[in-house]
């Protein structure tokens, strides 16, 4: 609403190829071409305490349907549209997670899907380079979103400010707080811009050093 005519909201179910095609169609109808696409749809079942042998296969399939299959369908349609509209120097950014880089006790279906998204970005970068499409990926951790809030509330940490602050200092010793959404958005904006024309097929951890092992968990 704040952006007014500069923004268009289109409801899209990434489980449905028809819904995805329609979302991109409406985008092109509005602006005539597609310069960049950020593929950020994702979901997580909060099942930290569930033993691996007891993982619900329906939840596993549902997570991969959104996080991996949905990402692939969106990427494929974005690439089609970019080629059809003759747009040059375009960019696609996928959103993975630190869970796709280092092991944890989190929901394994989420971690597996996010690891696959990183591989998808590298594969797509190689396949689309001759079409002038760059494909990159970022892997954030602990972004202050409703998903993180739900996770913290599920574990009981979110309801106690002192426990939350202590956990943040241990998990994020660099800044002693989570990653803010606008900080992650700044990395995405850079990857979509001409300043990143030489960057293709990479995964950037936006994690305050988690991938390097600085977290004291």
Strand fraction equals: 5-15%
Helical stretch tally = 6
Elements, N to C (H/E): HEHEHEHHHE
What is the residue-mean pLDDT, rounded to a whole number?
84
Poorly predicted runs are: none
How would you sum up this structure, described in words?
By secondary structure, this protein is α/β, with parallel strands linked by helices. 45% of the residues lie in helices and 10% in strands. The protein is built from 6 helices and 4 strands; from the N terminus they run H-E-H-E-H-E-H-H-H-E. The longest helix has 28 residues. The radius of gyration is 18 Å and the shape is globular. 28% of the residues are buried.
Topology, element by element:
Elements: H1 17-31, E1 36-39, H2 57-84, E2 90-95, H3 108-128, E3 133-140, H4 146-155, H5 161-171, H6 181-192, E4 203-206
Parallel strand pairs: 1-2, 2-3, 3-4
Helix pairs in contact: 1-2, 2-3
Entry summary:
The protein has 217 residues and is α/β, with parallel strands linked by helices. 45% of the residues lie in helices and 10% in strands. The chain contains six helices and four strands, in the order αβαβαβαααβ.
Which features would summarize this protein structure in a list?
217 residues, alpha/beta, 4 strands, 45% helix, globular
């Amino acid at each position: 609403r704040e952006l007014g005519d500069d923004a268009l909201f289109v409801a899209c179910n990434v489980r449905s190829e028809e819904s995805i095609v329609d979302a991109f169609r409406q985008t092109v109808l509005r602006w005539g071409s597609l310069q960049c696409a950020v593929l950020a749809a994702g979901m997580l079942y909060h099942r930290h305490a569930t033993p691996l042998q007891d993982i619900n296969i329906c939840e596993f399939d549902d997570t991969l349907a959104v996080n991996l299959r949905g990402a692939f369908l969106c990427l494929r349609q974005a690439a089609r549209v970019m080629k059809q509209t003759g747009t040059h120097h375009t960019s696609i950014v996928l959103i993975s997670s630190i869970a796709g880089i280092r092991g944890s006790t989190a929901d394994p279906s989420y971690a597996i899907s996010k690891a696959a998204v990183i591989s998808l970005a590298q594969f797509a970068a190689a396949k689309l380079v001759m079409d002038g499409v760059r494909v990159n990926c970022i892997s954030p951790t602990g972004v202050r979103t409703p998903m993180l809030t739900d996770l913290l509330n599920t574990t009981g940490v979110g309801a106690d400010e002192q426990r939350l602050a202590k956990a943040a200092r241990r998990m994020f010793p660099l800044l002693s707080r989570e990653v803010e959404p606008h900080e992650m958005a700044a990395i995405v904006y850079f990857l979509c811009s001409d300043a990143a024309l030489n960057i293709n097929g990479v995964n950037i951890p936006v994690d305050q050093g988690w991938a390097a092992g600085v977290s004291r968990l």
